[in-house]
Write a sequence for this structure.
């Protein structure tokens, strides 16, 4: 299946607006089409201009688009040169290209990303999120109180299939809150993988506990039961398996082992919304399971996170700790030292709306990864993620490849010169200065960190972008 938006036989209305349309309607079209812009036509479909979300933002801030709620303000601002430029098919470097008949009427559009800058990740926000945020804003429930918080918690915990969801301000505090709720503190050891984002180990250190760094498996890139068993001591209080880049850890065997030893498990699912192990969604296995909703995640709230659990007791503790340790039944009565880790109603409004498109996002990301695999196949030195065991059903958060370590920087530099953002894998925790006292020899993690690249993965990636990425690899590796 092609990723590109091709010329439309029947013109897609999300790319086109009439000069008499309201600004709100045009905003929704620019969001839904993923390009952030539309072509403007007269009633007879004659092309008379174009407009972008940036144009609208500026006009809303200065009030122009409020005084004139149609697009008249924008067309008045366009001088004769601009108007003429709007009618040409080769309008500079704009992504959205019009197809016109002999009378200047719009008959189709083509998206041209042959020169456009490409980010490694970009959230896809639609009219659903826009309406929900407006609703939350106009209601004046913009703090951590408001209906979208409980709606988001309820709908996300149902998506994963657990009893309780406790939304928090970000994924890092979700991990910290989980550790505190489980009683982790000084003298305790917590097992963490060497290859992960720093939030995983930072949350352990916030508690005064001792992180025990463990190498990762070369196939899954995550912890396994065998690796965990070898790192356990009498002081091991918790294990934090991270489902890295959407690839599930060996979470079933890990949790069974942990339960036999009385050790708590906190799943770090920040990068794996929708992944499964043995047919069950990740986020179902641990005592507490933590998700991030940062702007580049599969489901986003901008910043945000959530703790999930099947335990009524832990859920009650998490809610208490999230809100300053204050009793839900007695105002300003603090049961224990707590934290201000609440999410806002505005953030939750975005998240609740994002859930409507999560399956579409997962299919899109999988398709992008498949197109990269096809386009990059046969280029010397490229390795794709290893095939996982049958129990693992991964998702694509960011498409990944490995390259020779000495070629990674030249590839990323060439991509930058071509207007394409790529991202290296995380540095191993053992290589980072704040964690040097906990460092261990982790050869698998070291090799992955030295060779891994994340490729652009968002609705801005089409066949043209994939081809541009492939050219970069060809030029450097061939």
């Amino acid at each position: 299946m092609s990723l590109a938006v091709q010329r439309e036989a029947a013109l897609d209305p999300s790319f086109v607006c009439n000069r008499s349309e309201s600004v709100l309607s045009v905003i929704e079209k620019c969001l839904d089409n993923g390009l952030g812009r539309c072509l403007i036509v007269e009633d007879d479909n004659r092309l008379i201009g174009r407009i972008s979300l940036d144009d609208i933002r500026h006009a809303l801030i200065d009030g122009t688009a409020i005084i004139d709620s149609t697009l008249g303000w924008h067309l008045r601002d366009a001088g004769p040169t601009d108007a003429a430029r709007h009618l040409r098919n080769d309008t500079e470097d704009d992504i959205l290209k019009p197809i016109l008949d002999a009378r200047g009427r719009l008959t189709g559009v083509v998206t041209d990303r042959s020169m456009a800058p490409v980010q490694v990740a970009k959230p896809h926000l639609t009219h659903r999120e826009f309406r929900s945020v407006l609703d939350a804003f106009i209601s004046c429930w913009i703090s951590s109180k408001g209906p979208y918080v409980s709606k988001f918690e309820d709908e996300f915990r149902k998506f994963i299939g657990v009893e309780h969801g406790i939304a928090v301000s970000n994924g890092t505090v979700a991990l910290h809150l989980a550790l505190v709720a489980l009683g982790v503190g000084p003298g305790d050891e917590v097992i963490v993988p060497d290859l992960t984002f720093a939030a995983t180990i930072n949350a352990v250190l916030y508690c005064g506990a001792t992180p025990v760094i463990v190498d990762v498996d070369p196939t899954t890139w995550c912890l396994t039961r065998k690796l965990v068993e070898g790192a356990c001591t009498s002081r091991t209080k918790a294990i934090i398996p991270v489902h890295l880049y959407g690839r599930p850890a060996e979470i079933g065997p890990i949790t069974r082992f942990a339960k036999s030893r009385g050790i708590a498990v906190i799943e770090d699912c920040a990068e794996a919304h929708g992944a499964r192990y043995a047919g069950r969604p990740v986020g179902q296995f641990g005592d507490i399971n933590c998700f991030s909703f940062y702007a580049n995640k599969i489901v986003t709230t901008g910043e945000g996170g959530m703790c999930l659990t099947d335990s009524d007791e832990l859920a009650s503790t998490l809610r208490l700790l999230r809100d300053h340790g204050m009793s839900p039944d007695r105002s300003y009565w603090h049961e224990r030292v707590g934290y201000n880790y609440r999410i806002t109603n505005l953030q939750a409004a975005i998240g609740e709306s994002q859930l409507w498109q999560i399956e579409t996002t997962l299919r899109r990301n999988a398709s992008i990864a498949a197109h990269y695999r096809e386009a990059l196949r046969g280029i010397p030195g490229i390795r794709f993620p290893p095939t996982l065991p049958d129990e693992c059903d991964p998702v694509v958060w960011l498409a990944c490849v490995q390259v020779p370590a000495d070629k990674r920087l030249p590839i990323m530099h060439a991509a930058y010169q071509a207007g394409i953002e790529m991202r290296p894998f995380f540095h191993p925790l053992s290589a980072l200065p704040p964690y040097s006292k906990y460092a261990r020899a982790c050869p698998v993690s070291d090799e992955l960190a030295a060779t891994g690249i994340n490729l652009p993965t968002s609705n801005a990636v089409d066949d043209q972008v994939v081809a541009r990425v492939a050219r970069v690899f060809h030029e450097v590796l061939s």
In short: The first strand starts at residue 16 and ends at 18. The two ends are 27 Å apart (CA to CA).
